[in-house]
Each structure stands twice: as C-alpha cells, then as structure tokens.
Design goal:
Layout lengths: L2 H17 L41 H14 L9 H4 L1 H9 L7 H19 L8 H12 L11 H17 L11 H6 L10 H5 L13
Helix pairs in contact: 4-7, 6-7
Length: 216
Amino acid sequence: MTNHDATRRAFLVRAITGAGAIAGAELVPNAGAQNNEAQKETKAPDQPHSSGDRHGAFFNRDDAATIAAFTERLMPGAPGKPGAHDAGVLNYIDLALSGAYADLQDFYRRGLAQLDAHCRKTYNEPFLRLEAARQDEVITALEEGKAAEFTWPTAQEFFNIIRTHTMEGMFADPIYGGNKDFAGWRLVGFPGAQPIFTTTDMQSKQAFTRAPIIGL
C-alpha cells in the first residue's frame, strides 16, 4: 500500500472514530453539504443481510466493476487492514440502490456515465482500465470539482455520495450488506451489539477485544 493509500485510509478512519458516529445498528457519516437531489443518504438502508459477495440487485456488470474499483481507491485494502472490497462495500451500495436509496438510481446512472466520459476524454480509457495512480487523479478531480464533463450530478456531488456510501458500507451493521465479517468494526475496534458488558469491561481502559456481534 502506498503512502497515499495509507493517508487516505487514516483520514477515513479518523473521520469515523473522531465523530463518534458508529452505532450498533447503523453508521451515518457526514459528507458535507449537498444539493437536494443528493441528500437522501442520511440513514443506513433498511435491507436484509447479505453475504457481501453478491451484487446485481441494481448494478450491471460494468457499473459494478467501476464502483468496486472507485470505492477500493477511497478505502484501499492492505495486509491485515481490510478495504472496501474486503468489507463488501459494493454489495452494500448495490442493495441500497435497489431499496432505501432507490431515489438515487438515476443519480448513479448519470454519474457513472459522466465519469466514463471524463476518463475517456482525459485518458482515452474508462475508469476501470486506468492504473491506480490515474484513478486517484480522477477521484481528486471529482473532489475538487475539476471534471468538466459533469453537469448533474456535479463532480463533487458524485464524489461525496460515493464517499458517504463507502463509509456506510465499511462501518454500518453487517445486516445491511456491507462490513463483511465485521471488517470495518474490527478495523476501528468497535465491539458491535454485545449482549452484556461486565463491570470489568466498563472499567477497563484497554481496547475491547471480544469478537463483534451483529445487531438485531
């Protein structure tokens, strides 16, 4: 994992733990101000539990591969440190867009089409075929609003929504289809919905090490 990847990972983890946003049932990170069309992601979607390995509820094969690559650049994996792929973030977003976030389907469709147009104009290749360094350049351009091919959603809106959904897929309760095998919770040391905390647990200043338990 490059220093750039490590810096991005550290930023996202600090954003989660610093805000104290993790809860037993859901995680709702603050991705900043967004337009009316893009503000529908403010709670974890009410979706049945999934293994985290499947997709296809909303995305076609090409779009799924693009989202998988994009989210992995936002939250890259490393030995002993799970990333978006390990946590099943693609599955989370796919299920969400077929259910609670269905009103964002056109947002994603148009955003992905504009992403493809930007990458082909800039690099003569779609996002999926770019090497990691160029994918990062594209993501930075979106974050800074410098991708002229975007109209609606704007480049920054598209980036903010995917970043928010990536964080949700990493750290929300696994019942929503992400955070596979508690990958995100283990990363930040969150114990999940334990049935009981002993007096010793409550008084201890050491990191909680019991295995996470899924919410109900």
